[in-house]
Amino acid sequence: MTLKTIAILMLLTLCFVQSYSPAQAHKKPTPAPLSNHHQLFYIQRSKDANIIMYDANVTSDGRFDTEKPVDVYWIRYADKGQREDLSAFQWQMAYGYKQHRTASETDASTISLNAFKKLPIRVTYHHGHPVAMTIINGQSACLERVFVQVNPRSGLIPKIDYIEIYGTHPENKTPVYERINP
């Protein structure tokens, strides 16, 4: 091998090493769900392709169900892509929510996810469509999706490396993003 060939190989190796990060090694592409009229947002995890959906639970007269304003369920892309309910444990410990509603609210409700109580989410109508409004990177936004990077070396109780929150500005639809390191 010539000295020039060795130098080129070393340069290519250095470029590869610099572009590689351990987080990328574990961040598998996950499919986006097919959108539906009542979809609020969804959660993707690095663990597998399954996603957790959050849809507005709307009555026949177009109002939010006052008892359960959000329908939460799995789409099991890692299996056959089927819909599946959350287990009681999954609801209580992670993906379920607590509702914070006043008696005067009939067209909106505020929820907080059981696993991430710091992010209040206001489920309401915006331009005739149900949306999940929250604060992303310091500004009001329509929440669209959340990505959770789970540390692959964590044991029985998953350790979260980071959370990415994606949304859009409610008026001009520009993307809004925030990364949270717990």
TrEMBL record:
Leader sequence residues: 1-25
Pfam families xref list: DUF4833
Keyword Signal (UniProt): yes
Domain of life according to the entry: Bacteria
Name this polypeptide is given: DUF4833 domain-containing protein
DUF4833 domain sequence ranges: 41-179
Annotated keywords: Signal
